[in-house]
Amino acid sequence: MDKKIVFIIIVLIICMAIGLAYICYMTILNGNGIMKLNKKVSKLQETLLNDKELNFAREEYVVFLSVSDSNEKAYVTNGKADTLKKAIEDAKSKMNKNISLYKINPEWVRIDVVNKEEALKKNDLKDDLFGDENEYRKGLSLDKNYEVALLENELNANEILDYKNREINLKKLNIYLKSKNKNIKELNKVPDEFISFTCVSYMYDEKEIYRLGTKNENYGRKEEKELDELRLIEIMENASEYLIDCVDKNGKFIYRYNPIENNVSSSYNILRHEGTTWSMIEVYKITKNKELKENIDLATKFVVNNSVKEKDENISYIIENKNNEIKLGANGIGILMFIEYMETFNTDEYKDLVLKLGNGILNMQNEDGSFYHVYMYPEFNKYEEYRTVYYDGEATFALARLYGFTKDEKYLEAAEKALDYFYKNNYEKHKDHWIEYAVNEVTKYNPKKEYFELGLKNVRDNLSKIVNSKYCSPINLELLTTGLEIYDRASKNNIFINDFNVEDLINAIYYRSDYQLNGLFYKEIAMYFRKPSRIVNTFFTRDDKFRVRIDDVQHNINGYYNMLKNYKLIQEYIK
Fold it and tell me: What percent of the chain has pLDDT over 90?
């Protein structure tokens, strides 16, 4: 036989073998995926049937089944039947087809069972969409039979609700309906009537089944027990993993990530870079994670290599390169970052630099104790007298930390001078966590009554606003936990103010620490976005397109770190 023909036959046999092997592999994979889904749904069904809140009678039960492999956006099917079991089976049957077609590994499985419904008209929906972006927390069916029905997460994660114009975005709705994740026939127009609904929901991740919240802002996310030390560490460690992934080889962060579009922002802010690095150091003190240390080193050196500029041999500033601004707060947070680095890693590498940065802050302080906020580089001339109250507290906190690091009285005197100015000008009106940090640090060295009063009023006068805020606002937890330290030190110095209730403060700490988790990408929320594994267990801002920005993560870490640091103190006051 001709050698060429033999060669062709051999190649064909190999190709057929490879093809057969691939078919067998995909068959096994599909079979495993279907078996895995069936097993998880079976356990979820058992849990659902034992849920007292689902002990209601309906003519027709509606169930949503969401499945993700943790790397891609969830596939969602819904089922209907006259019993809950049959409705679950209907949704599961549809999902099995998706698993076979798209080779899905069902790592995360979520079931939502409709428990409450309300008929809505277009104007009713307009009223409900009035307010902040992504605030609508219910599902919508665009017909009475739930043929085209979407969960709250589907609506918001795909920008189907247009909050600016207070309507449904038909174009984005149809893009999602036609996607493989939904695979429903597109609509020609938005209907005049809808059904708004809520659900009782359960999630089954890689390890466990857990119930999702059904009330207020906790809707649709894991119901947490009271946060203990282990859970606080877990929250911080998980969030720091996101920050590790954000650092490039030069030490620069991915500043802002949009999980809806799966893209990043080109903007930057060196002050927030410093604060984020500071928070990573705080996590390292707990976890001793080597990878975290490597990225902290990169991020710290990035500031030195790219943003530190000397005015003269005694004064340095940290520059915002995009516009050559010298921001008071950048010097302040830079000092905090460098000192925290040196104390944590037992080095004096940046000692000369923090002295020069401290002198830079002194150069920006006015005679009355206030600060000038923005200079320009390279002229080092004054540019903007006031920008944000945060700069005042950041600079003062940094000066006090610098005194603790060097014992040079000029830095403490400058910090005291600033607090005197804040006290005279009622800075508690600003509800600023950085002022609280500054008071806490200065009173370690000077337990002056007026300083304690400033810090305690900052809590007392703002407590109601903080507790009742609908925003996650992680800086509020920073203020509360630092306020407890101030209260404890004040009481030991027999300093008290009228109408300050420490029990209310403790309750607020626990309430806000839980409420803040409504800005956490739990698996059951992350699974509806483009790249769930990229955002899971980090923090977002709901009213800004679910953005993940490094300072959002930083402030959440800071707040939970403070809570962990003061955990025993909190327990003492509870007793």
Answer: 90
